[in-house]
Write a structure and sequence with these properties.
The protein has 149 residues and is mainly alpha-helical. Helix content is 61%, strand content 5%.
């Protein structure tokens, strides 16, 4: 059951990555999108060194609402299920972001490097720091929520 759950998270992430490539093209982090940007130093710090864009703000709200849709549909909220959906969301964002580079014809694995990706300023080894943090947080949340499946 958990394998199907994780597989579905990957499918969702791949799909959004492909859609974002159509929206952003080579200009990641909505660099040329017609949206507002908040460059307040505290917002940038909380956002991993990136400005908060209107595009990403509303995309995150949309995803938050979507992962909670089953609770609204079935009125079956439980703490373990809440932990599962949050764990899935953190996993989703890591997979989606990495997939954006892999599937993007302007990047691909060959160009997945700190020197070519300005909107990921903090790297630990071969990947952005946020990936490690997201995967650890996802793993913990999925572990503690595993009884919800």
């Amino acid at each position: 059951m958990i394998g199907g759950f994780i597989g579905f998270v990957f499918l969702l992430a791949y799909t959004l990555a492909l859609l974002e490539i159509q929206i952003e093209g080579r200009d990641g982090w909505a660099a040329k999108a017609p949206c507002w940007r908040n460059n307040n130093k505290w917002i940038v710090r909380l956002n991993g060194g990136r400005p908060l864009t209107g595009y990403h703000f509303y995309l995150n709200i949309f995803m938050f609402l979507m992962i909670h849709f089953p609770f609204v549909l079935f009125w079956d909220w439980q703490l373990e299920k809440e932990l599962l959906v949050w764990g899935a969301l953190f996993l989703f964002w890591v997979v989606e972001d990495f997939s954006w580079f892999v599937f993007n014809p302007w990047y691909g694995l060959r160009n997945f490097k700190k020197a070519k990706i300005s909107w990921h300023p903090n790297w630990w080894g071969p990947v952005p720091r946020d990936y490690y943090l997201g995967l650890v947080l996802s793993g913990l949340l999925l572990w503690f929520g595993r009884g919800g499946i």
